[in-house]
Amino acid sequence: MVKKSLLALGALLVLFPSMAFAADGEGPTTTMLDMGLNALWILVAGILVLLMQGGFILLETGSTRMKNAGHVAGKTIFTVGLVSLVYWAVGYGFAFGGDAGEGLSKFIGIGDFFFNPPIAASDGDSYPSTIFFVFQLAFAAVSLSIAWGGFAERAKLSVYLIFTLIFGSVIYPVIAHWIWGGGWLADDGSQDYAGSTVVHLTGAMAAFAATILLKPRIGKFNKDGSANEILGHNQVFTSLSVLLLWVGWFGFNAGSAVAVGDGFFGYVAFTTQLGAAGGAVAALLISWLVKGKADIGVTLNGALAGLVAITASCAYVEPWAAVVIGLAAGVLVFLSQQFFEKIRVDDPIAAMSVHGAAGVWGTLANGLFATPALVEKVGVGQAGLFYGGGGHQLWVQFESVVVCGAFAFAASFVVLWIIKQVIGLRVTEEQEIIGLDLSEHGNYGYPEALKKSGSASL
Amino acid sequence: MSKLHKEKRLLDINGAGNPECLKEIRREEQNRLVAVLSAASAIELVEELNELHDALIGRALKLAEIELARLGLGAPPVPYAYLLFGSGGRREQTLSSDQDSGIVYSDPEDEEDAERLAHYFRSFAAMVVDYLIKIGYPPCEGNVIASNPEWCLPIGEWERKLDSWFAEPSWENVRYLLIVADGRRVAGDAGLVERWHQRFHRDVQGHPVIARRMMENTLRHKVLVGVFGQLLKERYGENAGSLDIKYGAYIPMVNVFRLLAVQAGIAETSTIGRIRALEQADILTAKEARESMEAFDLFLKLRLLAAAKDEEGQWIGTGKLPAEKLNREWKTPLKKALKLGRKLQRQVEREMRYRFGGR
Questions:
Q1: Owning domain of residue B350
Q2: B71-110 pLDDT, tens per residue?
Q3: Which domains does chain A have, with CATH numbers?
Q4: Using the 8-state DSSP alphabet, how is residue A444 labeled?
Q5: Closest alpha carbon to B96 in B330, B341, B320, B322
Q6: What do you get for the CA distance between the two ends of chain A, in Å?
Q7: Is B238 near chain A, with CB under 8 Å?
Q8: Which residues of B touch A289 (CB under 8 A)?
Q9: Contact B235 A290 (CB under 8 A)
Q10: Could you say which of B154, B182, B202 is where a domain stops?
Q11: Residue of chain A whose alpha carbon sits nearest to that of B235
Q12: Strand partners, B99
């Protein structure tokens, strides 16, 4: 057995150099191999990010009631389809188009509308632009699905359609351009590796605008201001959703290296895992300590908050800092959920806490924990406060959070306000009570469990 | 309260000719007690309130006996005793307690006699329960009530029933044992109740493991104080912000001292009485007993404060103390009392684990 293995090894050693020589002649060049590896990884990562939609479907459905299940789940498939077309036609061009003049390109990209890419990578490209498009599109779709949290269980289907058009073509692409597409925040050195701000805060702000304009669901708050608990109908869905999102997040963060290269994307995956773990653990413990019972919903949100927070910082921080960022996110999400309930904002999926509060924290955390070595490696911005960088990077991070958050909120608010004036945002009281499955689609997601006559007790 | 007033009240109650009169007396007396609630010691107040309840129930029994005789069923054919369980058994009824009751009567001579006695006492129990409803004591939701034939039995059958509960300590049977552990005679033959108690305590000695089962049965009511000493209030719904005094403070304390008393063979059923007896038996130190008494006094008071009047002027108790009634003055002693409750609960838990092993 040992003999055989040694023989095989010897044979390989003899063969391998000769194969390498052969490649010089007619096979792929090393740069092409490098490009191919990058392409393969980015496409896999893009697919992982797209699979996160499965997470959002389960998360939103599990956290809401049975009577809306089919609608909540199915509309995500529709809007992923719609945002793909919109992003292809317009959004990608505004985010990454390179035809704008120097002044204009600080604020918006122009070009590549109705994107018609070359069929293969050309010389010197580190990956095919087709694959980059697919990867970026998956991010836009994630941001949109985050926003839906604020619409859940009461918005009309038509509102989903109209808002997808605007969000996918303008709101998200503009922020993506500012930070990732060579816009003015990129010039300032804003660090947002995979999108705590670009993707998560943007989505959360849209959700916030929506929930303010839509007002709380029927029965969420009492006249005296106290809240009622409207429990989701399936905690198993919600738990599975977190696992799907967690796995998908490796595409989200590690894929954002957009290269295989020396394997740096592995480091990004590593800190991502630490952040998520910290969030889950801290959230369960804090809810247990404060409420006397360990809350499953908070734990699940804690894992997601850890992931959201580490998204901006995964490439910039040391392992211990990743753990701290995750732990803090887990505590933050618990407090944030209580805060939003106190100010009477009805957020069924906790989008504002998970993606908003944790997104802000993750982005700011760079200003504290970014190390000089990693900043040099990534090549964006400066080291954080705790690594001798002073307050500069923290200020830049603060600036991008405030500006992007304000823009996403204001733009979403204006768009939704206009929709509200023109066609209205919310279904009627009767429709809301019967459930959106019936009012918007004519069929229940759980037909056997619910009678079509629409009992008001649901 | 003056002795004079007490005597006058007793005269009034014993002179009342129908449940409506008794209801009126109850209303007046309860309003009088509520007026002095915040100033008085809760232990004394509850004592007095329960003397009132006992007198009212005693009179209702008399009226039912008279009414049955008038209907031609005659006087009670054999000695009987009327038992109170639950808060009534513990002499801890509030302004709005419901009826938890049972009847025990002498053994019949033969089968024919058995039927005759059962007929009389079932009619009697139905009449009493009905009267008490009229006086404003709602029936027990769990159907632990004299008008339920299962809780209206001759002493021999009661003994067999107790034995069977001890022999098969299922969740439900242990619940029954917890209920009867607080059983107390409110009126009737003392000898019967003595026999009944003796059987219960003999069975406890014969089945020491019952103590652990009793503890397990009550553990789901945790003392509502968190790791940081914070009050664990209701978070959602109409009672958001309120503290569940009944199940988060009072009941856990009741459970701890019931368990200790039952184990020690103490027949006393009121929690305060149990604490005193446990101190005398050297199971509690003087300091522990004093602190427990103070804490329990506070819980009793807050439990009374948690009561409110409904639209018809009837007292209803949610057992939940609204946020606005949780004033600053009480917050500190309440937290201290709750921490003591939590400590006692854990002590008992540890002791059971030590004696019977973990599970």
A1: 208-359
A2: 999 999 999 999 999 999 999 998 888 899 999 999 999 9
A3: 32-441 (1.10.3430.10)
A4: -
A5: B320
A6: 69
A7: yes
A8: 226-228
A9: no
A10: B202
A11: A227
A12: B139
